Amino acid sequence: MAVVEREKLLEVKNLKKHFNVGKNAVLKAVDNVSFDIYKGETLGLVGESGCGKSTTGRTIIRLYEATGGNVTFEGKDVHGKKSRKDLKSFNRRMQMIFQDPYASLNPRMTIKDIIAEGIDIHGLAKNDKERMERVYELLETVGLNRAHASRYPHEFSGGQRQRIGIARALAVDPDFIIADEPISALDVSIQAQVVNLMMKLQKERGLTYLFIAHDLSMVKHISDRVGVMYLGNIVELAESDELYEEPLHPYTQALLSAIPVPDPEVERSRERIILEGDLPSPISPPSGCRFRTRCPHAMDVCASKEPKWLEAREGHWVACHLYDNELNTENKQQ
Amino acid sequence: MKNILELNNVNVSFHTFAGEVKAVRGVNLHLEKGESLAIVGESGSGKSVTSKSIMRLLPEKTSEIKEGEILFEGRDLTKLSNREMEKIRGSEISMIFQDPMTSLNPTMTVGKQIMEGLRKHQNLSKNEAKERAINLLKLVGIPNPELRINEYPHQFSGGMRQRVVIAIALACNPKVLIADEPTTALDVTIQAQILDLMRDLQQKTGTAIILITHDLGVVANLSQRVAVMYGGTIVETGTTDEVFYNPKHPYTWGLLSSMPKLNSADKELMAIPGTPPNLLNPPKGCPFAARCPYAMQVCVDNMPDVTDVTSTHKTACWLLDERAPQVEPPEAALVGGAR
């Protein structure tokens, strides 16, 4: 991806989100996550359930208060004290699309009221006529039509509801959209429709996406860069082609080799890296590298030392002792 | 007899307040001994209803097998009494459900749940059944089976629970195993473990598997034959190679091309426009006609006949009629591209 002028839109630094789960136990859902998102790009975030990808998304948009770390949007701090006015202006710039199109639309509201809610709150329409014009325009943008405006959510299929969710997010003209598993509740043929729509809108409006999903092939398709999460940490981050062609972290390698490919011949001949065991509990994660209990390459140092976040190649970041040159030369000297 | 299970012209309807929903319309299928057959389709295509009608697990009050026969080793399952069906269910034909969180009884130890079927169908003593249960847990790869047999489902993780469900299903050495989306609720790395286990177990036990899924990747991994369902009918069936490398039905083309390929360059995905038909009022002709880019007038008016492409590969599409125009599948539907 030739991003010539890479202007940072969002900066996440050492973001932490811990939940108290009783008896002094703390669930570290997100622990020291840092990444940047550049203007106009799509950053994919993948990982298995419980790895903290959704919590990361929700903390960025301040649906959760962060336990620590900063989120900076266009140079301004997102968290911390804010006046109502500041918060409102910030909310206009950042929007979210949710996973479950059945649960994320209020069943008692008509589609026009759902979509226009943001327009009303931010006073973006002078009168009723203008408000409806905008709603119609948005419906058409996402591939629905005017007649749908006065209907209720239950009258729509999953794919159509997700389009309504997208129209609602677009209503306030945001720059940045967090899409939290926007397609995982949809059928394969409908998934492609929604992904195509999102890519089209990005091109037309210059949107920036944070695309959270567990479907690695779809994430590769839509993202410019992809981050892989495991137990609350980002373990690898690279441009999507690079990540899929040359994954460095053992977890990414296993994750990629586990995806079943719709090609019988490939499936027959493929060597899989099958990880032993299950995800450890995030309440008491393993010491050192959190992946070491399932890692086929685990060494002694992995148990004692947390791996550094380092740039193994240009633009390709990984947190793994295997790529820590300092450590490796140290070992050779010994 | 080669076919262990045969479905002939099966029709299943649900009676709802809105009217009769024709969920399965004229399905013909057969399953050979020891093979694995996948049924793929989107939600609402009738794949789960088909499998539940084999097990006779559909609600009796609201649903009805309207027509057709389901032959298991020559016996018509639709005509059996409930008592006779109970003898087959769980011992001759068993089933794995999608969600391992809800298909186990939370108040019973895992061992007891495995032993339940063994005691009922095979008249084993308590000790024999326990020994068998421990062996089964070992077979499905659960460490320390002697201890874990006394634990409850909540003490197991999702992947481990699915292993327990598989152990229960295999307890009585069934001849047919129906797996309804066995890996959909699991994470990718756990899914790989379970698929590996299922393939391994099939080779060991020789059980015939019907795999119900929407994931073509899982199909390519596990199955020898595929049936593609759409709108309550089977639109294409053949060996896995035939359906993936030489698909003939436009819906199969659509399915194959709407999945992003890991090795493809950034291109727009080929989406299938529109939504599946409403089976309250199913279309008179081909169910896919409304979304099919190649639809002709005849498709809307008449249900297509099943055409034999090869002796194993059958497609229900008017494009295969000799009077129809020649249509090439879109490039994106060609799996493996260069090959």
TrEMBL record, chain A:
<dbReference type="InterPro" id="IPR003439">
    <property type="entry name" value="ABC_transporter-like_ATP-bd"/>
</dbReference>
<dbReference type="GO" id="GO:0016887">
    <property type="term" value="F:ATP hydrolysis activity"/>
</dbReference>
<keyword id="KW-0067">ATP-binding</keyword>
<comment type="similarity">
    <text>Belongs to the ABC transporter superfamily.</text>
</comment>
<dbReference type="InterPro" id="IPR017871">
    <property type="entry name" value="ABC_transporter-like_CS"/>
</dbReference>
<dbReference type="Pfam" id="PF08352">
    <property type="entry name" value="oligo_HPY"/>
</dbReference>
<dbReference type="GO" id="GO:0015833">
    <property type="term" value="P:peptide transport"/>
</dbReference>
<dbReference type="InterPro" id="IPR013563">
    <property type="entry name" value="Oligopep_ABC_C"/>
</dbReference>
<dbReference type="InterPro" id="IPR003593">
    <property type="entry name" value="AAA+_ATPase"/>
</dbReference>
<protein>
    <submittedName>
        <fullName>Peptide ABC transporter ATP-binding protein</fullName>
    </submittedName>
</protein>
<dbReference type="GO" id="GO:0055085">
    <property type="term" value="P:transmembrane transport"/>
</dbReference>
<feature type="domain" description="ABC transporter">
    <location>
        <begin position="10"/>
        <end position="256"/>
    </location>
</feature>
<dbReference type="InterPro" id="IPR027417">
    <property type="entry name" value="P-loop_NTPase"/>
</dbReference>
<dbReference type="Pfam" id="PF00005">
    <property type="entry name" value="ABC_tran"/>
</dbReference>
<dbReference type="InterPro" id="IPR050319">
    <property type="entry name" value="ABC_transp_ATP-bind"/>
</dbReference>
<keyword id="KW-0813">Transport</keyword>
<keyword id="KW-0547">Nucleotide-binding</keyword>
<dbReference type="GO" id="GO:0005524">
    <property type="term" value="F:ATP binding"/>
</dbReference>
UniProtKB/TrEMBL annotation, chain B:
<comment type="similarity">
    <text>Belongs to the ABC transporter superfamily.</text>
</comment>
<dbReference type="InterPro" id="IPR027417">
    <property type="entry name" value="P-loop_NTPase"/>
</dbReference>
<feature type="domain" description="ABC transporter">
    <location>
        <begin position="5"/>
        <end position="256"/>
    </location>
</feature>
<keyword id="KW-0067">ATP-binding</keyword>
<dbReference type="InterPro" id="IPR017871">
    <property type="entry name" value="ABC_transporter-like_CS"/>
</dbReference>
<keyword id="KW-0472">Membrane</keyword>
<dbReference type="GO" id="GO:0016887">
    <property type="term" value="F:ATP hydrolysis activity"/>
</dbReference>
<keyword id="KW-1003">Cell membrane</keyword>
<dbReference type="Pfam" id="PF00005">
    <property type="entry name" value="ABC_tran"/>
</dbReference>
<dbReference type="InterPro" id="IPR003439">
    <property type="entry name" value="ABC_transporter-like_ATP-bd"/>
</dbReference>
<keyword id="KW-0813">Transport</keyword>
<dbReference type="InterPro" id="IPR013563">
    <property type="entry name" value="Oligopep_ABC_C"/>
</dbReference>
<keyword id="KW-0547">Nucleotide-binding</keyword>
<dbReference type="Pfam" id="PF08352">
    <property type="entry name" value="oligo_HPY"/>
</dbReference>
<dbReference type="GO" id="GO:0005524">
    <property type="term" value="F:ATP binding"/>
</dbReference>
<dbReference type="InterPro" id="IPR003593">
    <property type="entry name" value="AAA+_ATPase"/>
</dbReference>
<protein>
    <submittedName>
        <fullName>Peptide ABC transporter ATP-binding protein</fullName>
    </submittedName>
</protein>
<dbReference type="InterPro" id="IPR050388">
    <property type="entry name" value="ABC_Ni/Peptide_Import"/>
</dbReference>
<dbReference type="GO" id="GO:0015833">
    <property type="term" value="P:peptide transport"/>
</dbReference>
<dbReference type="GO" id="GO:0005886">
    <property type="term" value="C:plasma membrane"/>
</dbReference>
